[in-house]
Design goal:
The structure holds 2 protein chains of 2 kinds.
Chain A (H helix, E strand, L loop, with lengths): L7 H29 L1 H4 L13 H7 L4 H4 L14 H8 L10 H9 L5 E2 L12 H7 L3 H5 L16 H9 L24 H10 L5 H5 L1 H4 L2
Helix pairs in contact in A: 5-6
Chain B lengths: L8 H11 L7 E2 L2 H5 L2 H8 L14 H15 L11 E2 L15 E9 L2 E10 L2 E7 L12 H10 L8 E3 L2 E3 L1 H15 L15 E5 L5 H13 L4 E4 L8 H9 L4 E4 L6 E5 L10 H12 L4 H5 L3 E6 L11 E4 L2 H15 L4 E2 L8 H16 L4 E5 L5 H13 L7 E4 L12 H9 L5 E5 L3 H4 L6 H6 L3 E6 L11 E4 L8 E4 L5 E4 L12 H7 L8 H16 L9 H11 L21 E2 L12 E5 L13 H5 L7 E2 L4 E3 L1 H6 L15 E8 L2 E10 L7 E5 L29 E2 L3 E10 L2 E2 L14 E3 H6 L30 E6 L8 H9 L7 H5 L8 E7 L8 E7 L8 H5 L5 E3 L5 E3 L9 H5 L6 E2 L10 H5 L13 E2 L5 H13 L12 H5 L5 E5 L9 H7 L3 E2 L11 E4 L1 E3 L3 H7 L26 H13 L1 H9 L2
Parallel strand pairs in B: 8-9, 8-17, 11-12, 11-15, 12-13, 14-22, 17-18, 18-19, 23-28, 25-27, 32-43, 33-42
Antiparallel strand pairs in B: 1-34, 3-4, 4-5, 6-7, 6-19, 10-16, 20-21, 23-29, 24-31, 26-27, 26-30, 33-40, 34-35, 36-37, 38-39, 41-42
The chains are: A mainly alpha, B alpha/beta.
């Protein structure tokens, strides 16, 4: 009986092992790429909102400070989504008849809250605290992206744990003087080197990496 | 022991050797441990009991099906995207509300009608946790188990939700209309000339009333309808309080003890640290006098003697305990009175024949006399009036009145003629009641058997019921009104010291519920006024009369806000009143004590330590909270000591084979009444022939958790024998057995020396090393080396003082509330799967299981070892060390291998074998702490030192650019502890800083459990210091020296042999042999 496998089978066998390994690696790479893709992380995805609220217009255009609306950002874990009443501070006078703002007026009139879709959504087992980040000099824009250039809000970063840790491992380059955290025009001084940022970190009493790395810093 | 145990004697003896502590005392957790059954050994050596790893009722085939499906589908869970979430901001945000920041409101919850002051933590309007109010003069921040758990009642899914009339849903307006029609028959209108009933036939049934507003409304009602009657029933407490002082002093008075002034206390069948409304307040004061951080404090320690039939939480702090039959307890008190020269007391015959009792009588008499004026005799509230009066007479003789014992006007507003349940039954029987209004009481369930309340109810034309559940009584009522939880109500209550707390609602009523104040107001034509207005009226009158304080510009509104803010009204506590003893209070001859003429079988009835008379039966936290001493959950049982159980034919009470442990069933006969199928449970330390069964179980219509658990002891209680039945009492085997879920042997740490203790004389002699160091710990020795030092700015640690811990469980329930710990149910507890992060290990001390010398409690939770054995075995790094010394548990990483638990020497890790959390019931979601992850199935969890509280304070301090102050972070367990036994804090101090915890860790009493393993636990214990009477000790234990000598100090011999299987034996041989050879002989020959 003739040989079932000719001599060339050897090379096919070796190739198929190689291909198998490559395919497995490829699948792994594909899965990891998928995990990091905006499809999975929602980074840069624009969310439908009940009102087409423009951060661009209100901040860059009108110069309203972030903290006018997100008024608990300096003292609480949550930055606060402004109550309808706060919108009405201005919009009872400005654009008071605009059809675009009818949902705001309806909310105020009927005492029914506006339901926004959460854009920056951390997993429930993460306990993020705005106040501590802002008071250390981590700017809003570090995590939320250039909100001042977003007519419609999108997620400014992947918000994945690796992304958090990038900064928690080496926070200094991402710091500002705490007074400048909401200033989207802020630029580090021309001559700012590592020393400048190290000084900011020391000023902010940011403790060693172990503290920022400890699991219970964010998870409990 | 009896002959049947002869074969076990040698086994017992060897077991006892292994359990013998350093001072020759045997220290053990459960009877099985004492007897060292091989099956038990196997069980405790397992990481979890054998059954813990099983899956309930799933057979092999089904298991394979499910696991196959699980394997196939497991990967799919990773394909989900994060579900979209909504943000719903306020329309008009309340001024003080910051989303994510809790707010605290001072209020109180009712504890048998008295105020238990609280600070309620609210997240966005949802109460999530109750803490004690640290400023309150009585409780000083402590709470008891029930107060901690009462928040769960607010979210009880079985609460009734609507007003019903004959089962049909009605509105409050309809109810008020009905009451108004009724009311108009009773009162005269202006200008009308017709016959009015004036309250005839109208009967109100209330619990204990301390509320001044309620009292005001009832007084008003009495004015408008003078013939209306009120009956006060409360089966959760002894009812004799005021009867005692009436007999002793001629007037109803509240009795108070000032333990701060007492040096010697004799407790006679009293559990004053946990029973009653003042338990928390007494614990605070008493524990302060039991604290022995140094020799000076130890010298001035209060000494506690306890003469009792059943061990209790108070026993756990006693220096000497004597278990006596209730008859003898009575005789003992009479004999003591006679020896102290109380007029009218005659020494009973026969009692002093027992040399042990004689020693007690003589030495206690002498000790009390030496400390006349600085001693106190406390007689239990469930004892007969005459004995309690005798207790007061002894106190009077000793000159303790107005010193350690003082009296004030009553806090409870009594019904006219002190009418209670028997009077109510008589009145209904006589046809005098046509309308019955039941306010938050459940007499159909909790009445004694000779009052057939269900039948009596049928004789009343109209029955109205206010209660939190559609319970047994509601079934017999025409109208049912859901009762508001105290956290939903306006109201006012008084603590035992008289301090008034105005109750403010922490949340709007979840349902259409109302308060007792609303109900009574309806009968005054004010049903729509609302409790707030009615309460304010009361206190406006008070303000007008007393004023609000010295400050200028004070108005009622500002004072009112001050009261609400403080959680109590300053200066409302009752003032002590001078008393003089009635000459006619006696005489006391032992033979004349009612029902105390003979020994023999006797059964005691007591409210359950956790669910009381059944009112908390549907509270899962309380049901699952292991009861003090027995460590039983979810059940009541017929408790008796092992010898009595054997005498009555209940053999083999404990065995652990392939099945879950079973307890035999008994029929308890009292006269012609039978309590069927009550499980028998052996409790070491009870007196012979004494049985105890707790009330509150066997509910028929109490809710999903309450129904069917345990048996209803009311079936054999009668009006004449409310707390004790002696005649014709028999317990017979009923055939069959049942599983009781007790946690006493779960998570055992084997026979190592966990509990260390010393006594005052030893402490005085060896102030630097008060406890014989059994294991010499080389601080550098470690099972795991190579780990760097911890770098964190703070290093957290905890200390637990074993001298003051009473094992009350308050910390356990506080932890459960704070950390979203699920309830698992009886079957799961029986399998050893309870989830409590904190457990209270209870150790018995003594050689004879029937007559234990001491009870010691040791709260155990994660020790946060610096070199944690659990961390190195986790394959996914789900448990790792933080730089501040916490053993972090990362739930979202955990894959459930359980290796960590296997490697934990303390057995403090808990695994979610099944989906214990209820993710569906909407009410329960409201009560969860949003700062703590709600864990799901397959995840390991454990104590984290309340890391959410640490983080919160750390962030606050950093924002304010300062260090965290000492005592700024208070863990949930520490906060709730009524005896201040738990101290938490930072041990890494900067120049000039001090901290309580750092001081305590330097204390000579400080030790770490199993510290010889080199794991460096961060939770350490202060060895227990007792203050025995040297003379009594000498007479009771002539072979055992009181002072523990240190002949072999520094002998390197002790260090070895640990980490092997049988260290227990090593200890026994080493120390028993060298130091306490005599005791072995004594201990063995006693059996």
């Amino acid at each position: 009986m003739a040989q079932l496998f000719g001599p060339s089978s050897n090379i096919y066998a070796k190739l198929s092992i190689l291909l198998g390994a490559l395919a497995a690696g490829g699948v792994l790479v594909a899965v990891m790429a998928f995990e990091r893709s905006p499809y999975k992380t929602n980074e840069d995805v624009i969310y439908e909102q009940p009102i087409k609220f423009s951060h661009d217009h209100h901040t860059a255009g009108l110069g309203i400070d972030c903290r006018y609306c997100h008024f608990t950002v300096e003292r609480a874990a949550s930055a606060s989504i402004p109550p309808t009443e706060l919108c009405m501070n201005c919009h009872s006078q400005v654009w008071a008849d605009s059809p675009m703002l009818e949902p705001v007026r309806a909310s105020y009139r009927d005492n029914e809250p506006i339901e926004w879709n959460r854009v920056h959504d951390l997993p429930d087992y993460v306990y993020f605290d705005h106040s501590i980040h802002v008071s250390r000099g981590v700017s809003c824009f570090e995590c939320h992206g250039e909100v001042n250039k977003m007519p419609l809000l999108k997620r400014g970063a992947s918000l994945q744990m690796a992304w958090c840790l990038d900064c928690h491992r080496n926070p200094a380059p991402n710091l500002r003087p705490p007074s400048e955290v909401t200033n989207f025009r802020w630029e580090p001084p021309e001559d700012a080197g590592d020393e400048y940022f190290a000084h900011l970190a020391a000023e902010a009493n940011i403790q060693g990496q172990e503290r920022l790395w400890s699991c219970s810093t964010c998870h409990r | 022991m009896k002959t049947s145990n002869a074969t076990e004697t040698s086994a017992l003896a060897s077991a006892r050797d292994s359990l013998r502590g350093p001072r020759g005392k045997t220290v053990w957790r459960s009877l099985e441990e004492l007897a060292e059954k091989p099956s038990f050994q196997e069980m405790l050596q397992r990481e979890f009991p054998r059954h813990a790893a099983e899956w309930g009722n799933v057979d092999r085939r089904r298991f394979l099906q499910l696991s196959g499906a699980g394997l196939g589908l497991a990967g799919l869970t990773a394909c989900t995207k994060q579900p979209p979430e909504k943000i719903v901001p306020y329309v008009r945000q309340p001024e003080d509300v910051v989303p994510g920041k809790p707010m605290y409101y001072a209020s109180a919850v009712s504890r048998s009608g008295y105020a238990a002051p609280i600070l309620g933590e609210c997240h966005m309007g949802r109460p999530t946790k109750l803490e004690g109010n640290p400023e309150h003069p009585a409780s000083r921040g402590g709470t008891d188990t029930i107060t901690q758990a009462s928040i769960l009642d607010l979210y009880d899914p079985d609460r009734s939700e609507a007003i019903t009339h004959l089962g049909q849903i009605r509105t409050w307006d309809a109810f008020v209309e009905q009451v108004e029609a009724l009311r108009l028959q009773h009162i005269a209108q202006d200008g009308e000339d017709r016959e009015v009933l004036g309250g005839e036939g109208l009967a109100f049934v209330t619990g204990n009333v301390t509320s001044p507003t309620m009292a005001r409304l009832l007084a008003e009602l009495d004015r408008q309808m003078p013939k209306a009657r009120r009956f006060a029933v409360d089966s959760s407490a002894g009812a004799h309080g005021y009867g005692v002082t009436e007999r002793a002093f001629g007037e109803a008075l509240q009795t108070h003890f000032d333990f701060d002034k007492a040096d010697v206390v004799l407790s006679v069948d009293a559990d004053f640290l946990s029973d009653g409304p003042a338990g928390v307040a007494y614990s605070k004061v008493f524990s302060a006098r039991r604290r022995a951080y140094n020799v000076d404090e130890a010298r001035s320690m209060v000494r506690l003697y306890s003469v009792e039939s059943v061990p209790s939480s108070t026993t756990a702090t006693a220096d000497h305990r004597l278990a006596l039959h209730p008859t003898q307890v009575g005789h003992f008190l009479v004999a003591l009175a006679a020896r102290l020269g109380v007029a009218g007391a005659e020494e009973p015959e026969g009692l002093a024949e027992d040399p042990r009792v004689l020693a007690w009588l003589e030495e206690v008499t002498a000790d009390l006399q030496t400390h006349a004026g600085r001693s106190a005799v406390v007689v239990g509230e469930f004892e007969d009036v005459e004995l309690q009066v005798l207790g007061l007479a002894i106190n009077e003789k000793l000159g303790n009145l107005d010193q350690t014992v003082f009296f004030t006007d009553p806090v409870v507003v009594r019904a006219k003629d002190d009418a209670g349940l028997p009077e109510l039954a008589t009145a209904i029987e006589a046809g005098e009641v046509t309308t019955l209004v039941l306010l938050g009481v459940n007499p159909v369930y909790d009445s004694p058997a000779d009052i057939d309340m269900a039948a009596l109810m049928e004789k009343v034309a109209l029955r109205l019921h206010l209660g939190p559940h559609l319970d047994e009584t509601a079934q017999y009522c025409h109208w049912h009104v859901p009762q508001s939880h105290d956290l939903e109500s306006w109201g006012d209550l008084r603590s035992a010291d008289g301090s008034v707390t105005v109750l403010q609602p922490l949340v709007n009523p979840l349902y259409d519920s109302h308060t007792a104040i609303d109900m009574v107001a309806a009968f005054l034509g004010r049903g729509d006024d609302g409790a707030m207005q009615l309460v304010q009226e009361t206190w406006r009158a008070h303000y007008d009369a007393v004023g609000g304080g010295e400050q200028e510009g004070q108005t009622f509104e500002r004072t009112w806000r001050r009261w609400l803010h403080d959680g109590f009204l300053r200066g409302t506590e009752e003032e002590p009143k001078p008393v003089s003893l009635n000459a006619a209070a006696g005489p006391w001859a032992a033979g004349a004590l009612a029902g105390r003429t003979s020994l023999g079988p006797i059964v005691l009835f007591r409210p359950d330590p956790t669910i009381l008379d059944g009112r908390y039966a549907n509270n899962g936290w309380l049901q699952e909270c292991p009861k003090p001493i027995t460590r039983l959950t979810w059940d009541n049982a017929l408790l008796m000591n092992p010898r009595t159980a054997e005498d009555y034919g209940f053999k083999d009470l404990f065995h652990h084979g392939d099945q879950l442990p079973k307890s035999p069933l008994a029929n308890l006969t009292v006269g012609d009444r039978v309590l069927r199928d009550v499980a028998v449970w052996a409790v070491p330390g009870m007196a012979d022939d004494v049985m105890l069964v707790h009330l509150g179980y066997g509910r028929r219509v109490g809710g999903k958790l309450a129904d069917g658990a345990g048996v209803d002891a009311n079936q054999v209680r009668t009006t004449g024998n409310l707390w004790r039945a002696h005649e014709d009492v028999k317990a017979r085997r009923a055939g069959g057995n049942t599983t009781l879920a007790s946690t006493q042997s779960h998570h055992s740490m084997e026979g190592r020396q966990h509990v260390r203790s010393t006594n005052v004389p030893t402490y005085e002699k060896y102030p630097d090393e008060p406890v014989y160091i059994h294991h010499h710990v080389d601080p550098n020795a470690s099972a795991m080396s190579g780990k760097g030092l911890l770098t964190g700015e703070y290093q957290w640690a905890m200390s637990v003082d074993l001298s003051t811990c009473t094992g009350c469980n308050s910390c356990l329930v506080a932890c459960q509330a704070e950390n979203n710990i699920p309830v698992v149910g009886k079957q799961e507890v029986a399998r050893g799967r309870e989830m409590h992060w904190m457990r209270i290990d209870r150790y018995f001390v003594g050689d004879d299981p029937n007559d234990i010398e001491e009870v010691v409690h040791q709260p155990v939770s994660c020790m946060q070892c610096e070199q944690a054995p659990c961390e190195v075995v986790c394959p996914v790094a789900a448990t790792v060390h933080s730089d501040e010394g916490l053993n972090d548990m990362v739930y979202n990483r955990c894959v459930g291998t359980r290796y960590c638990s296997n490697n934990c020497p303390y057995k403090v890790r808990r695994f979610n074998f099944l989906l214990y959390q209820d993710f569906d019931t909407p009410q329960l979601k409201l009560g969860r702490n949003p700062d703590v992850t709600v864990r799901s199935r397959g995840v390991m969890e454990k104590c984290t030192y309340c890391v959410q509280r640490i983080n919160k304070k750390r962030i606050e301090a950093k924002r304010e650019r300062r260090r965290i102050r000492d005592k700024e972070i208070v863990t949930a367990c520490e906060q709730s502890c009524p005896s201040d036994s738990i101290v938490f804090g930072n041990i890494k101090l900067k120049e000039g800083e001090t901290s309580k915890i750092a001081e305590l860790r330097d204390n000579g009493l400080n030790y770490g459990v199993l510290e010889e393993l080199g794991n460096r636990p961060r939770t350490t214990y202060l060895a227990r210091v007792t203050n025995p009477n040297p003379k009594l000790w000498e007479r009771l234990y002539p072979d055992r020296p009181l002072i523990e000598e240190r002949a072999h100090h520094g002998d390197g011999h002790h260090g070895d042999g640990h980490g092997k299987g049988h260290h227990g034996d090593d200890h026994g041989k080493d120390h028993g042999g060298e130091h306490h050879g005599d005791d072995h002989g004594a201990g063995d020959s006693a059996h």
